[in-house]
Amino acid sequence: THVRIGEDDRTCDCIPDGVYLPSIPHTCLCRCARSPEPCKWQCHKDCPRKQKCTKKCHEMCDREPCDQPCSLRFKKCKHPCIGLCGEKCPPLCRICNKEKLTEFQFIGNETDEDARFVYLSDCKHCIEVKAMDQYMKMEMEEIGMKKCPRCHTVIWSSMRYGNIIRQLYRNVAAVKEKAFGDPKQNQDEFLKYFQDFIQLGVSSHLQQEIKSLERSAKSKVEEIKQCRVSPHPHPIIDQFELLFFKHQKEILEKLNRAVTAQHYGISVLSRVVRRAKTIADRVLSGRRGFNDWELESIVGEVARLPLFGMYWKLQDGGVNRFPEAMEHIRKAEVHLLSLETFSDTMVEEVHRELNAASRICGELGISKQERIMISKAMNLRQGSWYKCPNGHPFANSGCGGAMEVSKCNECGAKIGGTNHQLLDDNSRAGEMDYLQ
């Protein structure tokens, strides 16, 4: 080793602590480096041949790198330093360590008698300076930090390339901020989502799942509160974590509505809840987020759930008694029972077919049991029920055939017929016949 002025890089009166701060291109040996704020101490980049830098440590240096050879010598062998003025001296001697110094050939200048080397303190390699200058000035295909051409260690600390490192770091920081979002804004949005979530009217059927997410979110809220009273706050929620909680919250809210929105019978409700719990377990898995396919799949299953409720309700209501309704049911089953990701188009098609089947089964506006009771009370036989042109039901007593023309009590349209011949725009109400 050899002695040089300024070997101690400290520029403040803090206690040395060896804390590395990658946001600036040097090792800040003071406790103040723990702060995430950029170092505001005066830049110590200078050399005898050029003026001292007038900028702060974190700012772009206004002193150009010096290309003059370092004037220092090694203590032991007294051979001249192979570095440059104003830079950290390489630990290798051109004469004593020739083999080790030249074992890595970058562009072939390493063996020149006047070759100068820059020392990379991050990986402790010595690289020929002309080749290194060219390499550091080359444009990169991707945003990122420059790496040692020999071992590919990221270059964080170098006086000579300080401005390049600063600019690259700013580019990386800009990309990270765009991807991860502003920490303060992320925290505010998380707190807002949490407040909305805890005000949700919880279904007793999904209480366990919703409380599970609430407990997880509460622990994150406590971290945010502690962070905001800390003298050196640090970001604890990025854009991905915020988005994951938002997706979890919204999906559980939709599941909660799907379970409580419709009046299901006990049998249908148990099936709906069981399916909802399966989806909720998938959403509450310990992972950090969903990829696009997973999110699309889960959202599709949430949309499929209330349609399954309608489907099961129709099945329990005896839809198989109505041939016309069963045609719509079979069309709905093509998408409803498929293993494909449930798309918006499928939702519309299944909803349309189930509604059509529901209208056929329930257009009288009364339940199956009520229809049976009406038929029995009126002592009507099969074939006695008909519908007017507008779909309103009416019954013919007696033999059940059409023997006279009358008016519909609902809309005033002509109903009935003569000589057992039904009017052309009237039709049979088969849904009542199947209940006999």
Automatic annotation (TrEMBL):
Keywords: Cytoplasm, Immunity, Metal-binding, Zinc, Zinc-finger. The keyword ATP-binding does not apply. GO terms for molecular function: zinc ion binding. One of its GO terms (biological process) is immune system process. Residues 366-436 form the RZ-type domain. It comes from the Eukaryota. The keyword Cytoplasm applies. GO terms for cellular component: cytoplasm. Pfam families: ZnF_RZ-type. InterPro entries: ZF_RZ_dom (IPR046439). It is found in: Cytoplasm. This is RZ-type domain-containing protein. It comes from Darwinula stevensoni.
